[in-house]
Design goal:
Helix content is about 30%, strand content about 25%. It has about 350 residues and is of the alpha/beta class. The protein is globular, with a radius of gyration of 21 Å. The longest helix is centred in the middle third of the chain and has 20 residues. Helix 1 packs across helix 11 and helix 4 runs parallel beside helix 5.
């Protein structure tokens, strides 16, 4: 009996997540790269290995949606900077499953936009799964797992502490995240809206699955710290009075008191900030804490780079985000049609290094 055929994967976009996803596909014994859609014209027609800076892979990148959807493939790893419903619907209608880190972790089935995507998946007999890290794992999947160690839970907390200087996308840091501008610009900017949908889904997943009686509205809180002196950041100046740290918090409430909290802390280092925010002496990390009997906490290290230079070269959080999606592909392809969350799929796992795999 021959070897089982590999699942064929198309990578959609080759930013940091996309490049890491291709590496994970190459390392995965059940997957192979079948195609690649790219945004920029200068990548069009190039071998994907050239875009990655490795040897040729024999797969040519294209800017043509029609061309990439015509490829015979089982799944698309969809990781553009900004998702587009019509693109996702077109991919599903072409008969391909989708895994993605840009939404749909726990979508509201009554939302017309969600229903349109779910209907496209059902009609084509394929599956969509949203994943990632934060949201997409740290915020709901791992808290749910850890909560099984506790009883009489009163609070679930997931929190990120990151030095944003290691995020190698200065245009995003400046114009979308709002760093280096005025506090007023940052508050009115797109970042809170871009984050909000995903984090609210995570909070609702925890509430629904654990059975919390939460108030209908999830509270959003955002805070800003400004620079008190020039902060060293190569791509653009962080000058006194400009935005140098941001904190976003989403809280599910019962009778006005928080019971589930998801928080993002993004700092341009720990010096010259007002208010004087820092990482609490514990460095960059992700934390999950379940307050109950007993209270259980879990700290994730290694998802942030050791140094700024290392982060600009290869950010482990970006790589982990891609891996969390790619490692789900075999189970997503085997699942029934429709939108499937972590609650619908079996326990996902990584794979051994190729030289250690059976």
């Amino acid at each position: 009996m021959g070897e089982p055929s590999k699942l064929r994967v198309i990578q959609w976009a080759t930013g940091g997540v996309g490049k890491a996803a291709i590496e994970c596909v190459r390392n995965h014994p059940q997957l192979e790269l079948a195609g690649c859609w790219v945004h920029s014209a200068d990548k069009n027609g190039r071998d994907v290995g050239e875009i990655l800076g490795t040897g040729p892979l024999g797969v040519t990148a294209t800017t043509s949606v029609e061309e990439v959807l015509a490829i015979d493939a089982d799944c698309v790893m969809y990781s553009p900077l900004i998702p587009a419903d019509e693109e996702v619907i077109a991919i599903l209608r072409s008969g391909k499953n989708v895994v993605t880190p840009v939404g749909w972790v726990y979508p509201d089935a009554t939302n017309p936009r969600v229903k349109a995507i779910a209907d496209a998946a059902l009609e084509a007999g394929v599956t969509l799964h949203g994943s990632g890290i934060h949201p997409g794992g740290i915020t709901e999947r791992f808290p749910l797992m850890v909560s099984s160690l506790s009883s009489a839970v009163t609070h679930v907390r997931a929190e990120e502490f990151s030095d944003i200087r290691t995020y190698n996308a200065p245009d995003v840091v400046r114009h979308i995240m709002g760093f280096g501008g005025t506090p007023e610009e940052a508050v009115q900017g797109p970042m809170a809206g871009l984050l909000e949908a995903g984090f609210k889904m995570s909070v609702r997943m925890v509430a629904d699955h654990m059975g919390f009686r939460i108030d209908p509205d999830i509270r959003t809180i955002q805070e800003i710290a400004v620079a008190t002196a020039d902060i060293d950041y190569d791509p653009f100046p962080i000058t006194p009075g400009s935005v140098a740290a941001r904190r976003f918090r989403w809280e599910a409430l019962v009778d006005g008191e928080p019971v589930i909290t998801a928080t993002v802390n993004w700092l341009m280092g720990e010096e010259n900030l007002e208010p004087n925010w820092n990482f609490g002496g514990r460095g960059e990390r992700f934390e999950v804490e379940i307050t109950g009997d007993p209270t259980v906490s879990l700290t994730f290290k290694g998802l942030q780079p050791e140094t700024i230079a290392e982060g600009l070269q290869k950010n482990p959080g970006v790589v982990a985000t891609a891996n969390h999606c790619v490692n789900a592909i075999p189970d997503v392809c085997a699942a029934g049609p429709g939108i499937k969350t972590y609650l619908d799929l079996p326990l996902l796992a990584g794979r051994p290094a190729p030289h250690l795999a059976r």
